[in-house]
Design goal:
alpha/beta, Rossmann fold, six-stranded mixed sheet, four-stranded antiparallel sheet, 6 helices, globular, binds adenosine-5'-triphosphate, binds magnesium ion
Length: 227
């Protein structure tokens, strides 16, 4: 089992009160799955995937990653874990605007301590893989939304992560651009067995998913989703 959540409760402090956003979440994800997460706005989907991606460690319950508990890790251990095991793709890309496409994709490798010289061919390959090899020297502001998301996917993949978290990766795209991004994620999952956990509001994307999860009011329900 790649990912296992056991009875996760998540609260956000609101003034002196606290708001419970996740209620007793149990979840299992196997290596190689393509998991689609749906549910109403505010139901806790991003909160859930932030926990899965080691961005948030303030929750009750237990998170087992590859059979080992990560619930007790400190911030340093958690960021190490994040750097080595997960790639993120967000609706609004989170690219560094002042850096080139090449530099954006290279960044995680430099953080991991690899010398710049040794990163060149890996970065070039990753950019080719997502179909934007020729945009290497451009800045993100010179790209379309679909192209920016391809850069984000290349960056998410560069460290050969165990899984990818995509939080509404096509949320701001037209149907055709969205399909192009989904094809990339789908092929990565199928050909390279990269596990994908994707939040979406778009029922038409469920055909790409091997598994489906519904979040309603902070409660996770399994089963088949319908429009
Ligand atoms: N940092 C925060 N502090 C306080 N409350 C928060 C915080 N982040 C999220 N919330 C609240 O937690 C609940 C779940 O938010 P979350 O972002 O997980 O929803 P979501 O399912 O991703 O929604 P959407 O589909 O709109 O992205 C919401 O009620 C939200 O207002
Ligand atoms: Mg969200």
């Amino acid at each position: 089992m790649l990912i296992e959540l056991k009875n996760i409760d998540k609260y956000y402090p609101i003034g002196r009160e606290r708001l419970q956003v996740l209620h007793g979440v149990n979840l299992q994800i196997e290596q190689g799955e393509f998991v689609g997460i749906m549910g109403p706005s505010g139901s806790g989907k991003s909160t859930l995937v932030n926990i899965l991606g080691f961005l948030d460690s303030k929750y009750d319950g237990e998170y087992l990653f590859a059979g080992k508990s990560v619930s007790g890790l400190n911030d340093r251990e958690l960021s190490h874990m994040r750097n080595r095991t997960v790639g993120f793709v967000f609706q609004d890309f989170h690219l560094v605007e002042t850096a080139t496409v090449f530099e954006n994709v290279q960044m995680p490798l430099l953080y991991a301590g690899i010398t710049a010289k040794k990163t060149v061919s890996a970065v070039e390959q990753a950019l080719e893989r997502v179909g934007i090899g020729e945009k290497s020297k451009q800045k993100p502001s010179q790209l379309s939304g679909g192209q920016k998301q391809r850069v984000a996917i290349a960056r998410a993949l560069i460290n050969q992560p165990r899984f990818i978290i995509a939080d509404e990766p096509t949320g701001a795209m037209d149907t055709k651009t969205s399909a192009g991004i989904m094809e990339i994620l789908f092929n990565l999952n199928k050909e390279e067995k990269v596990t994908v956990v994707m939040v979406t509001h778009d029922f038409s994307l469920l055909k790409y998913c091997s598994h489906q999860i519904k979040v309603v009011d902070g409660v996770v329900q399994k089963g088949t989703l319908q429009a």
